[in-house]
Structure formats: structure tokens, C-alpha cells
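User: Hello! My lab partner asked me to get a predicted holo structure for this protein. The small molecule is zinc ion, SMILES included with the sequence. Please write out the C-alpha cells.
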Amino acid sequence: MTDSTLHLGVLVCKKCGSVEQGVGIEDIHEGLCFNCFYEVLTGKATWPEKPPSERDRLISAVDQFAAKMKMKLLEKFDQGWEGWDHDGLGWLLDCKDKLIWHVIAYERGDAKQLVDIANFAMFLERLEGRKKGEPQ
Ligand SMILES: [Zn+2]
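Assistant: Hello! Below are the C-alpha cells for the protein in complex with zinc ion.
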């Protein structure tokens, strides 16, 4: 059971692109971060400003997507799902199966699968990195 007042959400600043987590923010919300809000309020900055560059939009897109990944993973963790970083061939093969299953579900029209696809890709990237001895 989730208490909506304790819901951990994400604020994406429409001005600087920063991503902040906070309690009581509904899911993913676009607005102004505290610093940008303060600058606009005190006249140190104007709003709206020139549109963000392609590079800034790329950073913002990655940050927003990573925030969705994290929210989904923490939601599942809070439901009791554990073992995402287990060693062993069984989990590696399970991850591959689940990745393919989510890709097939996406291919059939369910765009909500994209975050799960990314999360299973992240698990697999970690497992493959571990095999190569990458620090984790
Ligand atoms: Zn900001």
C-alpha cells in the first residue's frame, strides 16, 4: 500500500534541465527547480529564455529516462523484488529472456515496455562488465 504523501517523484526543471527527487511530487513533473525559480523571482533571469541546445536536450532526455528507470526499479524493489545483481548463468539467461520478452511486448504495441527493456539491458551490461572485471 502506498501513501501518496510519501510518494517519491521527480521534478525535471524546464529551464536548466536538472532532475531532482522529492517527496510529494507526482511521478515525473516538469517545472522550475528551486534555483531557477529563485532567479526568475528575483529578476536575475528571465523566463522563458532561448530554447535549450540539442546537447542540452540530449542530456535532459537521458536524465528523464534514467529517472523513469530508477522509479520503476525502486517500485519493484519496494514490492519485494531482489537479486538484480546476482552472479550466475541462471540469472544472466533469465535477464536475456526477460529482455527479449519485453522487446516482443513492445513490438506488439506496448510502449510502456521501453523502461523495462532499458532496465534489463542495464542488468545485462552490469553482468557482462563483471565478466570482464570492470569495477562495480
Ligand atoms: Zn533549474
